[in-house]
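User: I'm curious whether this sequence folds into something compact or stays loose and floppy. Could you predict its structure so I can see for myself?
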Amino acid sequence: MQNNDTLPLVEDFYSIQGEGYHTGKPAYFVRLGGCDVCCRWCDAKQTWNAKLPPPVPTGEIVRRALLPPAQAAVVTGGEPLSYNLTPLCEGLKSGVVQTFLETSGSQPLSGVWDWICLSPKPKQPPIEAIFAKANELKVIVENEEDLSWAEQCAAKVAPACLLFLQPEWSKRKTATPLVVEYAKQYPRWSISIQAHKFMNVP
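Assistant: Here's the prediction. I'll summarize afterward.
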């Protein structure tokens, strides 16, 4: 985990949450560069190389995140936990902003979060300690093997953690019926769809 006063900022923008439990809610998104997972189907491959985005002072990121009326900030990537996110969270909290993290869990947890969405990947499994911290488990599903992986991860999270299956976008025609039937059979799971793509918002 790197510790400095800047973060490699790929983009930041005000939009609508398109996935998981908080779908439909407005939030300010902070997308950081650098990823150690690099999923084949990733829709944000521009984030993989941490050397490409400019280093932006944490204070400037906070200043911009405080401007919109929605007092919520989603920190995503890439893998945002590649960096020490405590200074960023402290700045956001000083502005009474709720903090939301989207992570694969492959790196140690830093920062203070109101909500942690853990999206684990089998090629780079999460650090065990983060399972207990997750408020939401969101597993991307391409095929039946991913359902088995989802159950392995669900066995490790806290009882109150919300469980979501999300069809992988490029395989949605086959993956969606798969997760629909699975959720019907095992109703502790809910389905997350990438609603922002249907709304044509970032």
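Summary: Residues 172-185 form the longest helix (14 residues). The first strand starts at residue 6 and ends at 16.
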